[in-house]
Design brief:
- The chain is mainly α and 296 residues long.
- It has two domains: 3-140, no CATH class; 155-293, no CATH class.
- 76% of the residues lie in helices and 0% in strands.
- It has eight helices and no strands.
- It has helices at residues 3-32, 47-72, 80-105, 109-140, 159-189, 201-229, 237-262, 269-293.
- α3 (80-105) crosses α7 (237-262).
- The two termini are 28 Å apart.
């Protein structure tokens, strides 16, 4: 790991720790306002548990984002702390806003408000601390040389691959959720049971359309990002796309799934949707499609 990556990891760790404390404060504040605990209907844990979980999650996530920040540094607009803040807010969009569009589609209105309320302050705190420490450590250790410019390609080149990858991702998510729902019922009853709402054609079509439409729109955004970070993603061809897809999964649904696991919600419907469906759709299908379709 080179010096910039180490500085990114250390800066991300510190920023993650601070943002975990900030997240705890604003989660507590949202609860006092009568908002639900994220999207989770389970009993709210003690504030001590919330603080530990938020800090652990933010530190691990912060290290990963800090390393990523050092890799895409020259691609981000602005200078110093402002550059890191732009990066952090972009991560807020890719994580919180993206997940919230799907949550709203399923009627999690209050949970979405609660999540966005606490997350925006978390990401602002993360960006400010990341920028301060990243720039300070660069100066302290004499790494003041100009960051190498990263070659980028036309954003338009990512629209078609991103749209197709999103459509495939949406179809995969729909099919996986359908099958995992049936399997979950089988585990409980030991009979292959398909609930009535899963035999309603209109309902199934609406679900399929929702997943495809939302994933197609966000797929275009992800495809455009892929064109800009293409040269910093390791590998070639399809493998490059797959690496990008897995990193996207970790930034997006992977973090949310780990959060649910920390709160003891592993193997719940929400965890399964975020972890298994997210990995297969966001990571594998999305990554393979981008890698196969994108031509620079």
């Amino acid at each position: 790991m080179n010096s910039s990556l180490k500085i990114g990891a250390v800066s991300g760790l510190v920023a993650g720790f601070v943002s975990g404390i900030v997240a705890t404060v604003f989660v507590k504040m949202s609860l006092s306002m009568g908002l639900p605990f994220y999207w989770d209907p389970a009993p709210v844990p003690p504030i001590t548990n919330i603080a530990i979980n938020e800090i652990v999650l933010s530190v691990l996530y912060g290290i990963m984002l800090g390393i990523t920040y050092s890799k895409v540094y020259s691609l981000i607009p602005g200078k110093g702390v402002l550059k890191a803040l732009c990066y952090s807010l972009a991560m807020f969009v890719l994580y919180s806003v993206l997940l919230s569009t799907f949550a709203l589609a399923y009627g999690y209105i209050e949970g979405t408000i609660s999540t966005l309320f606490s997350d925006i302050f978390l990401f602002i705190a993360y960006g400010l601390v990341l920028g301060f420490f990243y720039e300070s450590l660069h100066i302290r250790y004499g790494l003041t040389e100009k960051e190498p410019k990263i070659a980028t390609y036309s954003m338009r080149g990512g629209i078609y691959p991103g749209a197709v990858a999103g459509i495939l991702n949406g179809a995969t998510a729909f099919l996986t959720i359908f099958l995992t729902t049936v399997y979950d019922l089988y585990q409980k009853t030991y009979t292959v049971t398909i609930p009535g709402y899963l035999t309603n054609i209109d309902f199934l079509i609406s679900q399929l359309q929702t997943h495809i439409l939302l994933n197609m729109v966000w797929g275009i955004v992800i495809g455009v990002i892929y064109t800009q970070v293409y040269h910093v993603v390791p590998g070639k061809g399809v493998l490059k796309g797959l690496v990008f897809g897995i990193v996207y999964f970790l930034i997006h649904s992977g973090k949310a799934a780990f959060g649910f696991a920390l709160y003891g919600q592993m193997f719940t419907e929400m965890f399964v949707s975020l972890a298994y469906v997210g990995f297969l759709g966001d990571g594998i299908v999305n990554g393979l499609a981008l890698g196969a379709l994108y031509k620079k």
